[in-house]
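ok trying this again, last paste got cut off
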Amino acid sequence: MADKVIMSATDMRRALTRIAHEVLEKNHGCEDLIIVGIYTRGVTIAQRLSQLIRSFEGVEVPVGALEIGPYRDDLPYIQLPPVLRSSNIPADIVGRTILLVDDVLYTGRSIRAAMDAVIDFGRPLYIQLAVLVDRGHRELPIRPDFVGKNLPTSKKEVVAVRLTEVDGCDEVALLPPDGYKNTGNANKDLPRKEVS
């Protein structure tokens, strides 16, 4: 079964433009806003959102990158150790609004880990969440503030977000159940070992 493209490059651009406008509306501008992307594709999407806001408002919004590996609660169950990078948040977050950005929202566990990681940098006034795709199947009570596309899926399907900067093209595709090995970002839920 071939990949099924759910969002084209044009769809993605429109979704991110809408999210950027919604962020500005909800926050009454971008004062005290810091955009923080979750590695890998969340960082690229965060950078794109910052560029869109700059084009609308003429203001440079700081962009950070967050490594959530050490905060994950599934490390004992994954087959491969995660690749760890350095987190980088370019400004003091105390009393600021943090816009967490990720590519796909699934169980909510990556976002829980991301919130723990953010709090280690200080106490923001607000943490908001923007995702390109919300595929459902939440295991934790986490809900995004801004969503590019709601995409009902089965747990066996894989949602692959592909970005030009990382993958050479812009698209969101639905892969068959064995499609994990064909993508580098299977929703941040690494293949689990069989546990009894």
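PB: full thing came through this time. Residues 9-26 form the longest helix (18 residues).
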